Structure formats: C-alpha cells, structure tokens
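Bug #2210: token dump truncated for DNA-binding GntR family transcriptional regulator?
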Amino acid sequence: MLAPMTRTAHTPASSGKQMLSEKVYSHLRDAIMRGSYAPGDALKPQDLAKEQGVSLAVVREALVRVVGEGLADRLPNRGFAVPAFSDRRWQEIAEARLTVEPVVLRMSVERGDVDWEARVRAAHHRLARTPAYVPEEGEYYSGAWSEAHRAFHRTLLEGCGNPVLLETCDRMWTASELARRWSAHRVPDRDAACEHRRLEEAALARDADTAAEVLARHLTQTAAALTGSTPHQPAGKA
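Reproduced locally. Full output below:
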C-alpha cells in the first residue's frame, strides 16, 4: 500500500524567517542604492547579522537576492561585496540595454493602445515634477525621483505587451541602477529632463524610429558619463 503524499506547509518558523530575510534584503538594497557602501566594499554576513539582529542564514538568503539583482557580487573564497567600479562592467550592461531596449520601445510604440499613451504621459508628468535631489538624502538622486525615473522608462516599454521582454528589461535596469546613480557625479550638468521629454514626445507621436534613436542616445550618454568618454553627437544635436 502506497504511503499518502505529504504536502509541505509553511510553518510559523519558516514564515518568520522569510519576513526577516525580506527585511534584511530591503535594508541592504536601500543602503547600497543610497551609497552607504562604496564600490567594492565588503558585505560581511557576520557583521550584518549582528547589526540586524538575525541569523547568518537569514543574511545569506538576503545577500543571494541582492546578488541576483546585480547590486552585489559573490566573490570566490572572499564572500560578498558591492560591485567594484569597472568601466568594462558598465560597458557590458550598457551594451545589453542598447541592444534590447530600443527594439522593445519600437514594439511598444507600434503596439501600445490609448491607455498606454495615458500612462506614458502621467509617468512623465510625475518624473518632471519630482525633485532629483533633496537635502536630507545627500548627493545622490532622491528615492522619489529614482522611482519616478524607473516608472517612466518601464511605462514606455510596457506597450510591447511581451512579459518576457519586460522581465529582461527589468533585470537589466536593476543591474544598471548603481551605475546610473554614480554617473550623476561625472556629468552633473546633463540635461536629463530634456532627454526624457524628447522620449515622451517621440513615443506619443508614434514615431518609432525617433523614439528608438532618442532612447539609444539617452543610454549612450549614461554609459559615456561612466567611462568618461564623449559619445558621438549626430549632426544638429545640441
């Protein structure tokens, strides 16, 4: 006689561990994004466990999630660390985004409906009205602006209607988020507001060619800021 199948249930202990892991993950992610850790800084599980008052298992679970998002590295025999500032690393991320995102935006412009247009307009309005810097958050982009920025770019791409492509873009966005924030220190006078306005205008005009071109230039500007190089400026570009 076959033994009855058992079903794994979430016990109070496992649920509690999951909640603690989520808390530590959110703390780590926010601290890295705020610049509390410098590029290359070690993320020591023992210190984090003591600081957060949790077990090493909880901390390691949270660190694995942060690594999966590209906000930390797992180094052989050396534990975990914030990504080092490497031109090659950011060039590879930029190359991946330049390869995929303009294509997805072109699809979005061609497929997006009126509701998508309304969301793009609303997302751009929120971005344009949100201060990029606030005194209490120091020299990095404010959390509110960063979220508005993410939402605007994500909304532009949502019209494609392909969740697999959108998930790929989400992963690349998160992996490049540190680089984008660090780039603010290289080109503080960059007119990102104008770049975003041109993206909105091209998308809502249903001009897929221009939208893809503007996005490619926008991404190239960020990559150039990180590497200290000067991107190619097409004729007529101010």
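Output looks complete on our side. Residues 229-238 have pLDDT under 50 and may be disordered. Marking as cannot-reproduce; reopen if the truncation happens again.
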